[in-house]
Amino acid sequence: MTKKTRRIMFYVFLFLFLVMATSVVFYAQGYIFDWKNKKIIPSGAFYFKSLPEKADIYINEKYYGKTNKFIKRLLPGTYYVKINKPNYWEWQKSLEIKSKLVTEVKNVLLIPKELSLEQMTKFNVKYCSISNNQEKLLYLTDKSAKEVNPITQKIADPARIPTVSRYALRVLNLLENNDVQVYPFIEKTILQENIPSLKNLSDIIWAKDDKKVILNIERSNFYFLDLKDDFRVINLKNLIWTLSNYKIYNPRNLLFNSQNSNEIFFIADQNLYLLKLNLTNLTSSVLEGPIISNVLSYKIINNNIYFVSSFPLKSFYRANQNLSSFVKLFDIPFLGLKEDNVSIVNEDILMIEDSLYLYDDQTREIKKIADKVVKTEISSDKEKLFWQTPKEIGIIWLVPVSAKQPLREKNQIIFPVKTFKEIKDAVWYPETNEHIIFIVDNELRIVEIDDRDKINSMLIQSFVESEDLPKKLFFSKKSQSLYVLTTKDKLLEINLKIDK
């Protein structure tokens, strides 16, 4: 081999080495060759996480394995993605890949096509409320049990409970499967004040510890019910009337002190009062106030009192519960003087009549964001709020979201549900806080709030039209079940526990 030949081979191998080394470096840094445009460009990636896991991933109809999975070295562009699993509804979306970025899809929820319904109690359920810790349901029925100790009575043998036609309150423990009558209590040794109009129960207010409740009867009569100790009942309206020397007869908007369940706030004649109950001796209970004057509405949030003042200006305030600090948050110049036309949703959002208003702390303006609102609910992660109208569900982000995709700005609004049919009720799905369960027509559906491309909506249960239809929803994260109150007063359970 001549010297010239050796030199040529050296340069050839050197060139090949440099090409290969450069290719390896570019490959390691995520660069790939775009054959369509004949150039090397930085790639992007997908990360898919699903509930349940081990679901099949298809990108542009090509199989890429199972979730949860990181899929890299993809050319920038839009990809059609399908994620499915046998016997589950399919998830589909077109998603964009950008150079040097990972497109995250961490809230793919797959719902089984077949879910069973189980009736929770033999009793008709006329009204129902779930506790703060989501372990108990307190419900009203038109059948009162008798001659049985309800503490030992299980749902498994409800046919053995003798009943009489009389309205009663029962507590259904969702974890222990106990169904206990708490009013009227059957044990004769227990002293309970008579509640003459239980049929007209309109609201149930839970204490933070879920051991006590306030029953709102006909929207003007209030009864304290202790669910832990002897199921004691106290007529709060009469007690307040007596303690005030017969000056306060119509309290409203009663709420428990979040730090002491024996203390109850209430409004009377646009003044805020505090009732301190002495359960061992009711006559020694104390009525304090007015602790704040000129109050149209109030709410306890994070151990602070937020209230709307009617004088000297109609304004929104925050005060701590010991009333040592007051901060005016903003004015509401257009607000009327009616006590019942304004309610507080959170620190920035008010409901006036049936319209939702947002205070934007950037522009320092109050703007209407929705009309005909029938319900609002804050997600358990406190990041967002949905509102329900007869034909749509809207969501507003209460805080900016930058740690997960899709990214969100504070006060960003989307509408995951718009329909021509009536939406009867809706609740957050707290397992993800990225889905909402709702009733529309004769169907139970769950919808995601990821609005990148189309929004996936899946069927949970379909009911036979003109028969027993769903009308009210409750969800317990503790039992991972959805509870459905129907038009024929049945309480049904749908277990939505999904194996991870």
Summarize the entry for a quick read.
This protein is mainly beta and 500 residues long.
Question: Can you characterise this structure?
Answer:
With 500 residues, the protein is mainly beta. The chain has a domain of 107 residues: Sandwich (Immunoglobulin-like), CATH 2.60.40.10. Helix content is 7%, strand content 48%. Strands 5-4-7-8 form a 4-stranded antiparallel sheet, with no helix packed on it. A 4-stranded antiparallel sheet has the order 10-43-42-41, with no helix packed on it. Strand 21 and strand 22 form a beta hairpin. It is globular and about 120 Å long. About 3% of the residues have low confidence.
Strand order of the largest sheet: 5-4-7-8
Please mark out the parts with pLDDT under 50 across 5 or more consecutive residues, or reply none: 14-19, 21-29
Overall CATH class of the domain at 3-109: Mainly Beta
Please name the CATH architecture of the domain at 3-109.
Sandwich
* Secondary-structure-derived class: mainly beta
Name the helicity range: under 10%
- End-to-end CA span: 66 Å
Q: List how many beta strands DSSP finds.
A: 43
CATH superfamily of the domain at 3-109: Immunoglobulins
If you compute it from the alpha carbons, what radius of gyration comes out, rounded to the nearest whole angstrom? 30 Å
Arithmetic mean of pLDDT: 87
As for the CATH topology of the domain at 3-109, it is Immunoglobulin-like
> How many helices does DSSP assign?
2
How much of the sequence is in beta strands? over 45%
Q: So what's the overall shape? A: globular
